[in-house]
Each structure stands twice: as C-alpha cells, then as structure tokens.
C-alpha cells in the first residue's frame, strides 16, 4: 500500500491533470515529490476534509489558518507553483465527475480524509454578514475587522512609516521607509499642494499622509477614517509632531463630509472598500467636495477585466479573512465612473511592480517579528496575514491584479485645468 504522501500526489495529479510541482509531506511522516522544491506539509488529514468540502482557495485558506497545512522552503515559489494549478489553469484540462477515474479519485480522497463533516472554520473568519452591501453600518464593521487588529501589530508589519498602501520605489535597494516617503511626496506633488491649501485625506489611516502634507507642504488637512484605533494613533502622532493646528482627524464616513470645498483630495488605498454599487456615489461626493480646479488623487488596486463581467465574484479568502466586502474593479471602470461623476481624468500611472516589492517587505517584517506578532494577535491571525500578503505579492508580480494612481480634476467651465503643459512635472 503506498504511503499517504504518494497516494495524495497521485490523486492530486489525476484530478488536476498536471504534475504536482511541489514536494509533499503527509501527516504520517511520508514524503513524495520532486527534490529541491518547496515542501507542502499536510499536518493533519482534517485539511483534506476542509478542501473537499470547499474546493479552491477558501478550503486551502481554512486549513492554512488552522495550522493544518504549511510550507517549508520558499513561500513565494510555492505560491507561484500553486497559482499555476489553482488560478491560472486556462491551458489545463479540468476533471469531470462524469469520468469514472475522476469519481474514483474523489472517493479515494474522501476515504483518505477521514470522517465528515469538516471541522468548523477557524475563528478568525469574519462572522456571517447580513443586510445590503456598503451601508454605513456594515462598512464600519468591515473596516473595524481589518484595521482594529491593534496598532502595535501594524507597527510590526508596516514599520515606522505606518503607511498601509503601495510604496513608490526609486530603487529596490531603498528602505521601505524611504519608498513610502517617496510615495507620499509623489501624491503631494501630483495634487500641487502648497502652503495654505486645504486637503481632505479620505481613509487617512494612521495619519502618515496628513502629517507629511502638513509638515512638508504647509497645507491644512482633514483626515477621515472609520477605524477608532487608527484615529487614536493618528491624533497622538500629530500632537507629537506639533501639528494639531494644521490637522484634524475625524472618525467619519466619506458620505457624511459636508465642509467643502477643498483644494485637493487624496484617497490612497481606500476606494477598494467602496464597492461597485456605491462607486459613482463616492465619485460624485468627492467631486462635490472639491472647488473648481481642485484635484483628486485616487490610488486604488485594480483587477483584470473579465469577458463576462457578471461572472465576477469577491475573492473568497480575502472576503472571509482579510477585507470583508472588499471589491476590485478594472482601472477602465474606475476612470469611467470618475468621469461620469464630472471629473476630468488627466493621468493614470500603473505601479503594479511597486506593490509586489512593498508586500515582500511587509512579509519580511512579519516573519522577522513572528513571536511578537502572534502574541499581539493570535496564531491564526498572524498566519492569515502572512498568507494574504505573500499571495498578494505573487498576484501583483504575475499581473493578476494591479494598482494605479489616477489624477482627476474638477475642471471648471472655462476649461482651465490648472495643470502644466508638460506632462508629469511632479516627478522633478
């Protein structure tokens, strides 16, 4: 009788229609597969029950979060190999349950997995949500789930900059802190911030953009967030910088801001939470808050468009464990919505590779401080973050998702946009 590792490898290859590019170690200590590759460790056969019950990434993620599967070796290499089997299978034949060999393989996996049903999902999974998407109450709860993990935990992962969005890398040899400062400076230049102007920072996080804009460019800033932990941290930081006369931090929904007009608006890594059903409302609200000639910098992750847009569904793992109710749209849809709301889109800059670099630095920070990260959160939460950030880095690297900075203007009736004739003068 073959051992568990060899049996699993044979069954997986039969069902996937391709060779398994990873070595596999099973709960009985057996190993099988190509040498000198990362090893997928299945610590308990409960993992198989999870995967059989929820095929695809959610079953895999639940087993990962529970500590029932792990990777020894290069995590990125392992995720790249798995991507080719799970997410990038267009050129591979899919199994059919009409085929007798496929049915036999599934029955064998069920026997190997042990008695059903599967165990409950790990507790870090988001509780079942009810009601309409992207109401103010539901959005506030979703933001709290992701951002109110604890400021100390985020400091470990993000580093001193406390910027939770894609950095801007002049060189991959730069420090994360320098790359984040360069991103904030790039945003300020695109918005043409000068002393005395008024900036609204939508989704202000821990106050990094607000502090940079006020300290380096002399503007007055209103920062809004739905996370009370972020707001507390940002206010303390602003006080320590001596900038309380220039920066106000509010726990407020963007739909409730009524004190325009502003000279400029920055929205950095926030629009992913808005949702497709609300995006035009979001764009119109920001347009109404700008004075004529005012600029919006919308920094947002984008997905690739699909032939059948109605087939799109929210990523199961991300929705269950990371960003509840988060939605990604193609950059073309974002531009269309902004222009429908009245903006003139003047520049779109893709910085996809920059996010892969950023995420790898965050993963390195997490791994270097693993015991403390577990203590500040939980083993399951720390494992969620390691998988989510590493898998996201691979998605950016392999062009499955992108990130773009869209500069839009509330161009007045006269047509005078206020932008210089030479494109991208903000780069210096």
From TrEMBL:
Taxonomy of the source species: Bacteria, Bacillati, Actinomycetota, Actinomycetes, Kitasatosporales
Alphabetical list of InterPro entries matching this protein: CFA/CMAS (IPR050723), CMAS (IPR003333), MeTfrase_dom (IPR020803), SAM-dependent_MTases_sf (IPR029063)
Protein's recorded name: Class I SAM-dependent methyltransferase
Domain of life: Bacteria
Pfam family membership, one: CMAS
Family annotation (Gene3D superfamilies): Vaccinia Virus protein VP39
Any one GO molecular function term: methyltransferase activity
Record carries keyword Nucleotidyltransferase: no
CDD domains attached to this UniProt entry: AdoMet_MTases
Domain Polyketide synthase-like methyltransferase stretches: 153-412
Alphabetical keyword list: Lipid metabolism, Methyltransferase, S-adenosyl-L-methionine, Transferase
GO-annotated biological processes: lipid biosynthetic process; methylation
Family per record: Belongs to the CFA/CMAS family.
Hydrolase found in the keyword field: no
């Amino acid at each position: 009788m073959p051992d568990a590792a060899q049996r699993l490898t044979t069954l997986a290859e039969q069902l996937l229609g391709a060779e398994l590019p990873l070595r596999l170690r099973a709960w009985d200590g057996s190993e099988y597969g190509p040498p000198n590759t990362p090893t997928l460790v299945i610590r308990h056969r409960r993992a198989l029950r999870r995967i059989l019950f929820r095929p695809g990434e959610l079953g895999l993620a639940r087993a990962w979060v529970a500590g029932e599967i792990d990777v020894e070796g290069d995590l990125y290499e392992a995720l790249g190999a798995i991507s080719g089997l799970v997410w990038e299978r267009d050129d591979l034949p899919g199994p059919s349950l009409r085929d007798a060999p496929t049915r036999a393989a599934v029955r064998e996996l069920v026997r190997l997995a042990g008695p059903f049903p599967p165990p409950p999902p790990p507790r870090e999974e988001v509780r079942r949500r009810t009601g309409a998407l992207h109401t103010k109450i539901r959005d506030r709860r979703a933001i709290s789930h992701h951002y109110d993990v604890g400021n100390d935990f985020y400091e470990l992962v993000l580093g001193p900059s406390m910027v939770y969005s894609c950095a801007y890398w002049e060189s991959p040899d730069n420090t994360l802190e320098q790359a984040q400062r360069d991103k904030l400076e790039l945003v300020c230049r695109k918005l043409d911030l000068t002393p005395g102007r008024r900036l609204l920072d939508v989704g202000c996080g821990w106050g990094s953009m607000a502090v940079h804009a006020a300290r380096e460019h002399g503007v007055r800033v209103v920062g809004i967030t739905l996370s009370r932990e972020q707001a507390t941290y940002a206010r303390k930081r602003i006080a320590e910088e001596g900038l309380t006369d220039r920066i106000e931090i509010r726990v407020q929904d963007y739909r409730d801001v009524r004190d325009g007009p502003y000279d400029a608006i920055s929205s950095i890594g926030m629009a992913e939470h808005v949702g497709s059903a609300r995006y035009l409302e979001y764009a119109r609200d920001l347009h109404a808050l700008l004075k004529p000639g005012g600029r919006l910098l919308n920094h947002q992750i984008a997905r690739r468009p699909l032939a059948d847009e109605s087939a799109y569904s929210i990523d199961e793992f991300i929705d269950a464990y990371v960003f509840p109710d988060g939605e990604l749209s193609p950059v073309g849809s974002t531009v269309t919505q902004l222009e429908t709301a009245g903006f003139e889109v003047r520049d779109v800059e893709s910085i996809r590779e920059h996010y892969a670099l950023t995420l790898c630095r965050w993963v390195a920070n997490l791994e270097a401080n693993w015991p403390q990260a577990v203590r500040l959160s939980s083993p399951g939460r720390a494992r969620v973050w390691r998988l989510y950030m590493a898998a996201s880095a691979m998605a950016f690297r392999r062009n499955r998702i992108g990130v773009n900075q869209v500069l839009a203007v509330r161009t007045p009736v006269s047509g005078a946009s206020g932008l210089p004739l030479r494109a991208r003068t903000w780069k210096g």
